[in-house]
What does this fold into?
Amino acid sequence: MTVTVGVGISDDLDTVAAFDEAAAAARAQLGSSGCDLCLVFAGAPHLGHGVELLAAVRAQLAPRVLIGCGAGGVVGGGREIEEGAGAVVWALSAPDAAIQPLALKTAAVDEGIALGGLPDDPADYGDAMLVLADPNSFAAEALLVHLNEERPEMPVLGGLVSAAAPGMGAIFLNEDVLESGAVACTLSGIELLPCVSQGAAPVGPEMTVTAVNDNMIAELASKPALERLREAISELEPAERELAGEGLLLGVVIDENQPDYERGDFLVRPIVGVDPDSGALAFADRVRVGQTVRLHVRDSRSASADLREALATRARALGGEPPAGALVFTCNGRGAHMFGRPDHDAAVVDEVFGAPAGGFFCAGEIGPVGGRNFLHGFTATMAVFPRR
It folds into this structure.
């Protein structure tokens, strides 16, 4: 099976014209191939015209499956439109792939969070899943916990809706506009390579968690955690200490079954507080005794270097052959705000892969680290599709 991807982008203020233009560009890149999966991303000014924009896309591409959402900014063709009337249409031709669309819901129950809309049998979740979720009405982390338990090692990629308008649906499924929940699609019979760049650089020594209570790290390397943290910071180079002073991040190794830990092996989360009496650290995730942690720092330079390294790793996995294309889910805290110039992530993806890529600026990004799927921030996650 040969996989083909086409991407179109437009900043036309007229909704129908914008999505007609973007869909026509994507169709031209597909050539004679049909569209088996289409993703659409719509800036806030377009959300009052959801039915019309979907009709325009479907008229151009006639996709087997279509999902999409509102976007605070869009990415496509090496460009980023970070606000306003951005429109992106991403189209995939994969005739032998099995693609199943899903409308998902979550609801609070006595036992926790109930999930609705998934297939009854986890074997039917596919080999990979794409998810676009409304953060105001859908508990994305509950979905990821469930998928990690029921289908370990299955990659899940996507992001949280980042643009909405009162009374207007911001999630799209085929010809329908939905006002809440999440849309997803399962993928089988097609290879998907996940690529995750958390935009942070590891610094200082590796340390072992030796005492913990839920998300409170009491000891690192058998010392009060705050004491060991201060020691680690004192050992950093001056530039690294300055970055650490702007906000402390801690990376936790998820998969310990390897001799050495590289940049992408750590799940990076902020240290959100300290208990000066006990010396414990409040961490923005749960950890367990025995896990390896390391300090991380983040700035535009480390974020750019991390993205290039993550993409280069995937490019090597492809044997030097450009992929058919990629879906890009980048944080709305990145862009010109982080890098000081427009089009950073889009341009780097275009430079390294040289293949059609499109996506949107998210309010949270979904992607795997160490074989488990997480909801991230300040991250760029990508679904990379090889040509065969």
DSSP finds eight helices and 26 strands in the chain.
